[in-house]
Design a protein that fits this description.
By secondary structure, the chain is of the alpha/beta class. The protein is built from 26 helices and 18 strands. It folds into two domains: 225 residues, no CATH class; 384 residues, Alkaline Phosphatase, subunit A (3-Layer(aba) Sandwich). Bound molecules: (2R)-2,3-dihydroxypropyl phosphate (GP9) and manganese (II) ion.
């Protein structure tokens, strides 16, 4: 303490600042302070662990030193100081622009946004002034003070340049710090760079500067591939699509014509949960998803028991890409994150809007920036996106991935009732998400499984909660009258229990840990897929082998939409010509009789590898492999080359993303109702301008199971976040 005091007294600090290195250090400290200030009062990055705070606080350091150190190589006095101040000014400007942008969009600025490619109609231009705060001068006052101090020689400029070797040492040090920062971030959030969940995460773990540079590199790379792609590349795609097209099933074509589509995204729900009963410690059986089971067996439901997810690193976002576009996600990372704000799509909301006059909306209780949804949905043609900002999200009713399912559905209907019908809507549930350990209070009570793996143990309870939330939503749909006029499609997006944990699950699914194989892992990738068409009694359990890529052609045909003009890579699952070949994103595949995994052929009926396949079988597998490769390659060439922009024959007018804004949507939907007057088809209007919100009834697990034993307070294990596979 004394030392510091005397340090100041002797006025050493001033001397230090009068050297180039001292001045350089001052700028670093100031920039660091500004970043920390922004982290504290501007950005809401969802930090809840001390290690995350630590990473957050250190993350501006490396890039700030690195970028400012560029000026250390400048030898001439004036130029060196000018360079320092210019870099300083630019870094401040970058931070400040992000702060202002964040106030409006709860998101960070991408290179595309900067270049104007992603301009939004309600863009920053008009609203920027409104977004300034009186205290914003704090971010600039230091800059003015320093320039003033330099001009009036209160800070003196040092003549002697910094030795080049020393500058190099500083730059190198900053690179080392950066890699330290990065590896720490990767341990907390595996796959941070390869999967790029969200811009939030990049800023949270690496800082604004690193995020911007990273975004620039990725943008450059994708732009290169796009620039080289041409109309000719589309030819091969169109040939493939024509050859692969499967005729609709005449009996079902148009069965749901003109109806609302209500997609329910069953987070991490696997098919094995359907009809599953969990045994508690007293040997008592508990049905995990009683409501979904009843739907599954209902004769108004077309239920599939051989439907596989086909996602890769983009997880939920990959499932959405597949379901909405009949295209695969990318081999690495998320298409939403990497191309969602650039590419042209032929997504369901757009097709249905342009051919059938549908309105479309997504409902999801997490931040809109997660998986870059707020940008991607515009290019899919979603008219509305109700993200967390439209919900009352509190500490109690939410967890790290957003609002819990019951309040989510309950709070969604206030918006749903104002959508013009027919609508195409998607409800993305999220409570049944890794780490499956968040049910508290009145929602706790469903028994835990008793394996060595905490993640597996909690999975059934959150699945049960998801099930109950869907039942409440269905009850509302029936009470409000939306039900009869809708087709409700439910799908599991991907596995909930990763392959690395499956051995611990084996016993629960009637297998043994010791004999568990890759074949078993592959079979676990089945997810629920149910198409519920109220009023029909034609529903049945369909055993066709298919995957998420097949969902869109299946749905469009049920709605009576001709799909021959569109670039869809899947096949109608009701078609007699469906080839029942399910590609996984990594090139493996499943057919009704065989499963092909990295060179090994497994017989589905025995579960064993076929070590000496017959010539006929080898040829058959070879042919399937080629088809799978072609399907995946076609998907990649469409996505990487942004080929759909050339597909004018689709008849779809191009989407202008700036026609879409997800801000102040309540004004938007009610303005449309007002403008349409008697012609408005929203539930609210049809109901004589009376809200149906009160028809939603919600109950807790304990309400429904008053005799259930309340378990001891569960200690939630969030000490390590998900592994890369989760
Ligand atoms: C986040 C949610 C989860 O908003 O959809 O995504 P996931 O981690 O499953 O990809
Ligand atoms: Mn998911």
């Amino acid at each position: 303490m004394k030392k510091i005091k005397s340090f100041f007294e002797k006025n050493n600090l001033k001397k230090v600042v009068n050297t180039r290195l001292g001045f350089f250090a001052l700028l670093i400290v100031l920039l660091w302070l500004k970043n920390v200030l922004a982290y504290t009062i501007e950005f809401n990055l969802g930090i809840d662990r001390s290690i995350e705070y630590f990473i957050l606080w250190i993350n501006p350091i490396a890039t700030t030193i690195l970028l400012l150190s560029i000026a250390l190589y400048v030898r001439r006095k004036r130029n060196a100081y000018i360079a320092l101040m210019v870099i300083y000014g630019l870094l401040t400007l970058l931070l400040f622009s992000n702060i202002v942008y964040y106030r409006e969009f709860t998101d960070f600025i991408t290179i595309n946004t900067m270049l104007g490619a992603g301009k939004v109609s309600t863009g920053l231009g008009e609203s920027a002034l409104r977004l300034f705060r009186p205290y914003d001068f704090i971010y600039w006052i230091d800059m003015i003070a320093i320039i003033f101090a330099l001009a009036t020689k209160r800070i003196k400029m040092q003549e002697k340049p910094v030795r080049a070797r020393f500058s190099l040492a500083i730059s190198t040090l900053s690179v080392l710090i950066f890699f330290g920062n990065l590896s720490l971030a990767e341990t907390v959030r595996p796959g941070l760079l390869s999967r790029t969940f969200s811009r939030d995460y990049l800023v949270k773990y690496l800082g604004v500067n690193a995020f911007t540079v990273y975004d620039g590199v990725v943008t450059y790379q994708t732009n290169q591939v796009r620039a080289e792609a041409s109309e000719n590349d589309l030819e091969a795609v169109l040939d493939y699509v024509d050859g692969h097209y499967a005729e609709p099933n005449e009996k079902l074509y148009g069965l749901a014509e003109g109806r609302n589509v209500i997609y329910i995204h069953l987070e991490s729900l696997q098919q094995f949960v359907i009809d599953y009963q969990l045994e508690d410690e007293n040997g008592q059986l508990h049905e995990v998803t009683p409501f979904l089971n009843s739907l599954y067996h209902d004769n108004s439901t077309f239920s599939f028991d051989n439907f596989f997810h086909q996602v890769s690193g983009g997880k939920t976002s990959d499932a959405e890409t597949l379901m909405d576009n009949s295209l695969f996600g990318l081999n690495q990372g998320s298409l939403f994150s990497q191309m969602g704000d650039k590419n042209t799509f032929q997504a369901a909301p757009n097709i249905l809007a342009q051919t059938q006059g549908y309105t479309s909306a997504v409902f999801h209780g997490n931040k809109g920036s997660f998986w870059n949804r707020n940008e991607t949905y515009k290019r899919f043609g979603y008219d509305y996106f109700f993200d967390a900002s439209y919900y009352d999200v509190t500490e109690e009713n939410s967890f790290q991935y957003g609002l819990h399912d019951k309040p989510f559905f309950e709070q969604s209907v206030q918006y749903l009732e104002h959508l013009q019908q027919p609508f195409y809507s998607k409800f993305i549930a999220v409570s049944n998400h890794y780490p499956y350990s968040e049910l508290k209070g009145d929602e706790a009570g469903f028994p835990m499984a008793n394996t060595d793996d905490e993640t597996i143990n909690g999975y059934f309870a959150t699945a049960n909660y998801l099930d109950a939330s869907i039942e409440e939503f269905f009850n509302y749909l029936k009470a409000s009258g939306l039900y009869e006029n809708s087709v409700i499609v439910l799908y599991g997006d991907h596995y909930g229990i990763s392959n690395s944990r499956n051995k611990d699950l084996a016993e629960l699914v009637g297998k043994s840990k010791a004999t568990w194989t890759d074949f078993d892992n592959a079979q676990m990738q089945r997810v629920p897929y149910m198409i519920h068409v109220p009023g029909t009694t034609e529903g049945y359990e369909n055993h066709t082998y298919g995957g998420e890529v097949d969902a869109l052609p299946t749905l469009l045909h049920l709605l009576g939409v001709d799909t021959t003009n569109y670039v869809l890579l899947g096949q109608d699952l009701f078609s007699a010509n469906n080839e029942q070949l399910v590609a996984f994103r990594n090139g493996n595949f499943v057919t009704p009789n065989y499963t092909y995994l990295g060179g090994t052929i497994y017989d589905n009926h025995t579960g064993f590898a076929v070590n000496t396949p017959s010539e006929a079988l080898s040829a058959q597998i070879e042919e399937s492999l080629l088809k799978v490769e072609t399907q995946l390659r076609t998907s990649d060439s469409i996505n990487n080359g942004d080929l759909l922009r050339f597909n004018v024959e689709s008849g779809l007018a191009p989407i202008n993303p700036s026609d879409y804004s997800y801000l102040r949507q309540v004004n938007q939907i009610t303005a449309i109702e007002d403008a349409l007057g008697d012609k408005s088809t929203s539930l609210f209007s049809v109901n004589g301008n009376k809200s149906t919100v009160d028809l939603f009834e919600t109950k807790s697990y304990l309400d429904n199971n008053p005799v259930a034993e309340v378990p001891e307070e569960e200690t939630t294990t969030t000490s390590t976040e998900e592994a890369a596979t989760e």
